[in-house]
Amino acid sequence: MGYDEDRHDIEVSVNSRNPRAQICVLPESSVLPEDLPPAPEFTFYNSLQLLDRPHGVICDVIGLLTFSGRPERIRTKDAHGVEFFLEYRWLRLEDGSSDYPVMVKLFSTSQPDVQRQLHPLSVVVCSRVKVIRVDQHQYLRNTTYTQVYCTGQGHHSVMGYRKLHPVRDFIRWLRSQDDRQVQSRALVGGFFVYPPPPVSLETFMKHHRGSPGFLQGAELQAEIERLCYRERRTFCIQATVTMVTHCRAGQEDRCLFWTFRPSPVPWSSSGPGFSKPSPSLSSSSSVLPPLLSSSSSPLPPASPSSTVNQLTPRPLDRRSGCVKRRLSFESPRKRRPRVTVEPDQNKDTVILFQASMEFLENADDTDEDHAHDSDNSSFVTAPLLPTFPPVAMETLPMYYDHEHREEQAVTVAMGGKTSKNFNLAIEEYYTLRIRALSGVSFDVVFLPDSAPSLLHHSNTWSSILSHRAFSSHTPAPAPADLIAMAPQLTNQRLVCVVEACHLGGARTELVLVRAFPLSG
Fold first, then answer.
1. Is the dihedral of CA 300, 304, 308, 314 positive or negative?
2. pTM exceeding the 0.85 threshold for the entire prediction
3. At residue 479, what are phi and psi to the nearest 5 degrees?
4. Which residue has the higher pLDDT, 110 or 257?
5. Position 217 in a domain
6. What pairing do the DSSP bridges indicate for beta strands 322-327 and 311-312?
């Protein structure tokens, strides 16, 4: 047993077995006053006071939990070079003293029962946490002596901090809050990155001192395959954008998309993530791109080298693996059927449907059609695109559901599964297909922020990708407008900063957090 006079902490080391230790708790009345340890001392800082605290300060915080992140892991090494994993999750605390929440990167401690109960709308006290300052941002992180106290565990009623002035100020603010308003902004799980990367390539590389280094496509592929479950890593790669899609969760078959000039389908991941290619996917596949969503506005005409907007089905050119389609600019309310042709549910039409397929599969009849259509300027040739599986539900944050908080916590936890569908805080997302200089392609999710701070830029694709947010000085562009502006990305070399997290099985989440254009 050891006692630290500076920290007023007692550390007790006992055998768990062989032989098993026996601990007897003595009543306080039977212990002499001089033998009692001193009461713990707390130094509470609110969110306003933390703004000017230097790096490395040890303090205590109390706040209302409004965001509880998903557990993730990072790979690290000990003093002997042995690799191991550290599990952590992000917490967001509000205390009413400023508009800046207190961000806590909470690593797993010896309190697993407490960490499982960290639900939004709980009052959380984190003692002896350390201030970490990165550029203009700061957050708190565990120390060896960090303790977490949470609502529902019976902690607050027995701890001495409840009588302190900063705690009482917080309780007064807490009682003035409306449950519905707080719950409307309380989130659980989903992709989260903090502090946000810089908005310029020079600052980014200076901050990281050249690391993470640039990877080639094959190197990135190998590093992604090396990831373990829920391991999170950051990668940099030079690439160009060859496709942009806008989708709504659960309605991926009705999306807006833009694709660069026609070319054979490159080897790529299936969906917004990374996985090995399916052997059944080829350039002659009958899988066609999704159609324009009926909730979007008409788009302006596309450039000759790209395909934008809803496309009409045309015969399949078996030799080139491409489908010729006519550009359509009709009202989205007159949405045409899906490109893929399905037989009628009536069994009497199946035979006729199969008979008609011979006309599509006869390659000898395509020469004349191809020559006739090639002279018609109203047609463009677009590549045969693979379908995009839905974005992983672990990527999108959920609104906190107080009535089903336990089930929601299981959903967010490692390996957690539930059959209940919770309300998503983000339903719309973009998928960008980026092609590395070596030719390997990856599909990455892009989730623009809704301007968390005052940002002023032109809302072009280059500025949106470098800020990962829309400008706060002008209305955010509609998805249809962004897809129409996607030709801005043609042949534009980008330094892409990608966050990768293995989600289990063959699923690996790839999220684009920054893309810096390269000049020249």
1. positive
2. no
3. -55, -40
4. 257
5. yes
6. antiparallel
Q: pLDDT tens across 190-210, in order? A: 999 999 888 888 888 887 654
Which CATH number goes with the domain that contains 154?
2.40.50.140
Enter the tokens of residue 182.
Answer: 């707080």
Where are the alpha helices (H) located in 379-427, listed in sequence order?
Answer: 405-412
Strand partners, 442: 434
Number of residues written out for the chain = 520
Model confidence pLDDT, tens digit, residues 271-317: 455 444 333 322 222 233 333 333 333 333 334 344 444 333 333 33
Cβ atoms of 364 and 222 closer than 8 Å: no
Residue 280's identity, in one-letter code, is S
Q: How far apart are CA 265 and CA 181, in angstroms?
A: 48
pLDDT tens per residue, range 434-458: 999 888 999 999 998 865 566 788 8
The Cβ of residue 190 has, within 10 Å, a number of other Cβ atoms equal to 19
Handedness of CA 201, 205, 208, 212 (dihedral sign): positive
Structure tokens at 365: 């009849």
Tokens linked to 107: 């690593």
Q: Which residue has the higher pLDDT, 272 or 223?
A: 223
The residue whose two tokens read 């790979």 is: 75
Assess whether 277 and 311 both reside in one domain. Answer: yes
Q: Are 242 and 441 in contact (CB under 8 A)?
A: yes
CA distance 34 to 38: 9
Same domain membership, residue 183 and residue 205: no
The count of structural domains within the chain is: 2
Residue 188's pLDDT is what? 96
Give the angle subtended at the CA of 23 by the CAs of 20 and 24, to the nearest 5°. Answer: 150
- Any residues with CB less than 8 A from the CB of 506 and at least 6 apart, and which? 275, 276
Q: Per-residue pLDDT tens for 362-415?
A: 444 444 444 444 443 333 334 444 456 678 989 999 999 999 999 999 999 988
Taking CA 376 as the corner, what is the angle to CA 372 and CA 380, rounded to the nearest 5 degrees? 105
Mean pLDDT is highest, among 7-11, 60-64, 301-305, 390-394, for 60-64
Amino acid at 236: C
Residue 2 contacts by C-beta under 8 Å, 6 or more apart in sequence? Answer: 10, 11
Which residues share a beta bridge with 166?
A: none
Is residue 350 scored above 60 in pLDDT?
no
Distance of alpha carbon 381 from alpha carbon 378, whole angstroms: 10
One-character DSSP codes across 86-141: EEEEEEEEE-SSSSSPEEEEEE--S-HHHHTT--TT-EEEEEEEEEEEETTEEEEE
Identify whether residues 277 and 298 lie together within a single domain: yes
Structure tokens at 150: 């949470």
Residue 22 in any domain: the answer is no
Query: What residue numbers bound the domain in which 209 lies?
Result: 201-338+370-517
Beta-carbon count within 10 A of 115 CB: 20
Neighbour count for residue 500 (Cβ, 10 Å) = 21
Side chain identity at residue 25, one-letter code: V
CA-based max dimension of the chain? 103
| H runs (alpha helix) in 256-363 | 350-361
